[in-house]
Design goal:
Layout: H1 2-19, E1 25-27, H2 28-45, E2 50-55, E3 64-66, H3 71-82, E4 89-98, E5 101-108, H4 115-126, H5 139-152, E6 157-163, E7 167-175
Parallel strand pairs: 2-4
Antiparallel strand pairs: 1-3, 4-5, 5-7, 6-7
Helix pairs in contact: 1-2, 2-3
Length: about 180
Amino acid sequence: EYVISDAITTLGNMFRYSMKWSSGMVELKQEILNIQNYLSLMNLRQDYEIFLSLNVPAELLHIKIPKMSLQPIVENSVNHGIEEMAEDTTIYIKVFKEENNVIIEVSDMGIGMSQEKLNELIRSINSKEQISDDKEHGRALYNVQQRIKMYFGKEYGLQIFSQEGAYTKVSICIPNDETL
C-alpha cells in the first residue's frame, strides 16, 4: 500500500525533524517542509483536504527562525479553526520584509473566534507566565511567543487577528538580520 508507505515515511521525517536539536534555530524552508509533512498526515485522517499556499520569496527561505515555531500555529489552525468546518480549505503562509523586520503570516479561513476569545488568547500569550493550563488558552502560542522573544528580543513576537466565522491570522515579527 503506497498510502501507508508514504504515511510512515512522512511520520518518520517529522519525528527526525522534531528530535534533531543541534540548534534552536532552523532555516524557514526546513520549518515549511515540516508543515507540509504535518498537513500530509492530517489529510490522510480527514474526509476533507487542507491545502497549503506559500507566498515566500526565495531569498527569505534561508532566514533563521526558532525551530517548531510555525508548526504549532498551523496545528492550531487545523484543530481550532478548520476541523469543526470539516470541508476543503487552505492555510496560507506569506513571508515578506517590512523595514528592518521579516513578517511571517499564517492564515486560515476557518471558524475564527469571538473578540472576547481573541482578547483572552492575546492576554494569555503576552503574560509573563502562562495563565492557564487549559489548551483553549494558547499554551502552544505562549511557548512560541516566549521563544521568539528569547531569541530576538522583547520587541518581536506574535500578533493575532481573527474574525468569528471568517478567519484567523497569526503574524510573527522577527528581525531582518542576515547574520542570524
